[in-house]
Every structure is written in structure tokens, then in C-alpha cells.
Design a protein that fits this description.
With about 250 residues, the protein is α/β, with parallel strands linked by helices. The protein has a single domain, classed as Purple Acid Phosphatase, chain A, domain 2 (4-Layer Sandwich), CATH 3.60.21. The protein has helices at about 15-25, 45-50, 60-70, 75-90, 95-105, 140-145, 225-235, 240-245; strands at about 5, 30-35, 55-60, 110-115, 115-120, 155, 165, 170-175, 180, 190, 205-210, 215-220. The strands form two sheets. A six-stranded mixed β-sheet has the order 3-2-1-11-12-9. The protein has a six-stranded mixed β-sheet with strand order 4-5-6-10-7-8, with no helix packed on it. About 40% of the residues are buried. The mean pLDDT is about 95.
Length: about 250
């Protein structure tokens, strides 16, 4: 199988996305799948969407959906960022890009299945909105329900915390999988690839994964985080916290 890069939660962070794409180019990867949330939080939604349009596949995330409709259950800072992002995407500068970007978001699929692999943003039960946190391994009924809805391997994002959920259930942090996670026939797992643009596992570096020859390898990539922080701080309609948190990976 040709190598496939699986990324998620770019969140308008152009510097992180650029660094990840440069790292991907150095690997044996032939295609890129994005699990959603191209926009939201970050200062470069238009530029990130233009890049995501070139990926082999991009799926719908909850922030992508909120830009098209209305944010529900969002924090104050996240909600403000959605309304600011919507203004950027709806800005009429006379070019055809405005309509094209909105149509791209509106046409994104919620899930994709291929060769025993499932791809989505959030969870098998609710592909756009449901969180699956590491501590959910202590909620047996939830984990049983989720695993009953997948055939083999399910790739997801949404929590911004990379790692592997097994059926025991256990959560294996990506940092403990230096040699990667081996995909075995008949063995189910939910694999969170982490976040490109806003990691939340106390590691500020961008996160993504590569699936190649039955092994999932997690990658961490340094990027010019201070430039992203400064962009956010310069925009009065974006909460400064959205930049500050990038420095700490939270």
C-alpha cells in the first residue's frame, strides 16, 4: 500500500500546515486525507481552505459545519472565532474564490470507508460532534457502543490528542508508540491523529500520522508558532488565548 498521510484539525494555522506538508513531502507518501476542521480558531482560514482543496480527500469537522450554519455548544472564544472566520470567507473582493470556498465546505462528506478503514472527524456514532477523550476508556458502555460501529480501524481527530484506543479498552498515547502502531487483521482500533494547528497534549508541535504498509506512524513537526500567535494577537476579534495556548500545546 502506498503511504497515506492523515491530518486533522488544521484550524486556520497556515504556519503549522506548511510545516506539516513539508514534512509529508520528505516521507514516502502519495496522498493526504484530512479529517476536518480546516478552519476555526486560527488566523488564515482562506489560505488553509485553498490548500485543503488539493488534498485527495477532506471531511467535514464541527468548526467547518459551524461556519456554514451556527455554532452550538462552543465556548465564547471559539464562537467569536467562528463568526470572524465566516466574515473572512464571505468577504466579497470581486474574485470567484469566495463562492468556491463556501461550496467546498458545503460539499464535504462526513465519513469515508475504504478497504476496512474508516475516516471521520469525531466519532463513529456522531462523525462531526462527539468527543472521544482518553479518559473515556473508563466509560465501558460508551467504548463498547463506539467499537460496535466500526469494522476495523477508525481514524479520527476532534480532541487534538493523538493516540490509539483499543478494545480492552485502553488509550495508548502517541508519544509511547515510537515504533508506530501495527494494524492487525480482525483487531479493531480507533486512532486519533492529533491536530496540525492546535495540539492539546502539552506538546506544541503539529501532529499527524502516516499509514504505510499496515503500520501507523505518528509524526510531530516544529513550526513557526510565534508568527501564528502574533497574527492572532493582531486580530481584535480573535481571543488572545487562542494564540497563547499554542505555545503550551493545550
Amino acid at each position: 500500500m502506498s503511504g497515506r498521510a492523515i491530518i486533522s484539525d488544521i484550524h486556520g494555522n497556515l504556519e503549522a500546515l506548511g510545516a506539516v506538508l513539508e514534512d509529508i513531502a520528505s516521507q514516502e507518501v502519495t496522498e493526504i486525507v484530512c479529517l476536518g476542521d480546516v478552519v476555526g480558531y486560527g488566523p488564515n482560514p482562506c489560505e488553509c481552505l485553498d490548500i485543503a482543496e488539493r488534498f485527495e480527500r477532506t471531511l467535514l469537522g464541527n468548526h467547518d459545519q459551524a461556519v456554514l450554519y451556527d455554532p452550538e455548544g462552543f465556548s465564547s472564544g471559539a464562537e467569536k472565532a467562528i463568526f470572524w472566520t465566516r466574515k473572512q470567507l464571505e468577504r466579497d473582493d470581486g474574485s470567484p474564490d469566495t463562492q468556491r470556498r463556501l461550496e467546498f465546505l458545503a460539499e464535504l462528506d462526513r465519513t469515508h470507508r475504504e478497504n476496512g478503514f474508516q475516516y471521520l472527524h469525531a466519532s463513529p456514532r456522531d462523525p462531526v460532534n462527539e468527543y472521544v477523550f482518553p479518559e473515556d476508556v473508563y466509560h465501558a458502555s460508551k467504548m463498547e457502543a463506539l467499537f460496535s460501529m466500526i469494522e476495523g480501524i477508525c481514524f479520527q481527530g476532534h480532541t487534538h490528542v493523538p493516540g490509539v484506543f483499543t478494545t480492552e479498552p485502553r488509550f495508548l498515547p502517541a508519544a509511547e508508540l515510537a515504533r508506530g502502531y501495527v494494524v492487525r487483521p480482525g483487531v479493531k482500533a480507533m486512532i486519533n491523529v492529533g491536530s496540525v494547528g492546535q495540539p492539546r497534549d502539552c506538546d506544541w508541535r503539529a501532529s499527524y500520522a502516516i499509514l504505510d504498509d499496515g503500520v501507523v506512524r505518528f509524526r510531530r513537526v516544529e513550526y513557526d508558532v510565534r508568527t501564528t500567535v502574533e497574527k492572532i494577537h493582531r486580530e481584535p476579534e480573535l481571543d488572545d488565548f487562542l494564540g497563547d495556548r499554542l505555545l503550551e500545546g493545550r
